[in-house]
Amino acid sequence: MTRSQIGRNADLSAVAMTHSTGAGGLKLVAVETAADRARFIELPYSLYADDPNFVPPLRNEAAALIGGIKGNPWFEHGRARLWLVERDGVVVGRISAQVDRLVLQHMGAGTGHWGMFECIDDQAVADLLIDTAEAWLRSEGMVRAQGPFSLSIWDEPGLLVEGFDRPPTVMMGHHLPYYQNLILARGYVGVKDMHTWQVSITKPFPEIVQRIVAASERNTKLVTRKVDKSRFAEEAALILDILNDAWATNWGFVPLTPAEIAFVGKKLKPIVFEDLIRIAEYEGVPVGFMIALPDINELTRDLGGRLFPFGWAKLLWRLRKPQVRRIRVPLMGIRKSLQGHRVASLMAFQMIEYIRRDALAAYGASEGEIGWILDDNGPMRSIADAIESKVTRTYRVYEKAL
Q: Do 60 and 144 share a domain, yes or no?
């Protein structure tokens, strides 16, 4: 064992010993076995048992997220450690800590992340979890910790701090209200807020938006088409290439790698519907896109997080022609070369209106959700305001110097 490895182990051991003494002693468990990973995955199902807005995540997806490079290409450029905390043999908390080479390149040298934080309402448990994550990040040379990220900004970033009164939409996180107090007590401060916006789609957008859409339809250089699912891998690569360009200057941006692009395309294909994804072309060149997804959480909520033995068949049947109340727009982007150009506004509102029409007619949806949107993303906030949407949930990323 090298001197640095000895130092790392000593640092983590000291954290565990500090918190495991006295009444109600806690036990820190490094997740290294399949059994420990299963317990890590299972914790939220018991913690949120009495939360009426909890949507049980599918266990197979949760397992893939933390299962290493075979299940998640994030591990090609990132490494993570997972821990559990037990009290009297019962798991009462969990956390991850991760270092991502792309985060170090794009968010700043020395920036480490933690996430997947779940915990009973007990500051001692939270202290042990967060202290352990911080100790590991220090041992990896990190000088600041940000969280929660589960595991990256492309998964479930931020902690829900406003909007606990409604279930999350597809691919969005949900947390218990007391988590923010547990984190603030550790000296963290909020550094970035992300909002989701709700809009009614049962009626036409305001007149000014209708005029913009009409103008876009008179512009012969602008064509908005549906995605072609028969060549979805190619279409997904195109969309995510535009995304990497469009979002490059956003806070927290980390580019998706080719392996991640292929992985995302494969993951999304079962819930992709051609009339809910638009690609905008200007002078024959694809320059913008908008992705909308039926709120699959409405279709999986009663499955209890299990696809087998019967959940898979139920979900497949429901996905044949899904009828949902909400449609979520998780991603939208226009290449930097056109951002600020009048045509960017034309194509944005055209894509939004076309998807609104189809979401209402084909999926029975009455509500759209846009987001998340960064609190300082002026152009997207302006679009959200123009279609008379309102903020329904806020997620916050916290930071602390190590």
A: yes
Residue 10 has pLDDT above 90, yes or no: no
CA distance 402 to 392: 33
* Domain CATH code at residue 358: 3.40.630
pLDDT of residue 56 exceeding 60, the answer is yes
Confidence of residue 270 (pLDDT cuts 50, 70, 90): confident
- Judgement on whether residues 49 and 189 belong to the same structural domain of the protein: yes
Cβ contact 125:29 at 8 Å? no
CATH number reported for the structural domain that contains residue 7 in this entry: 3.40.630.30
Angle at 264 between CA 230 and CA 290, to 5 degrees: 70
Write down the pTM of the prediction: 0.92
> Are 149 and 28 in a shared domain?
yes
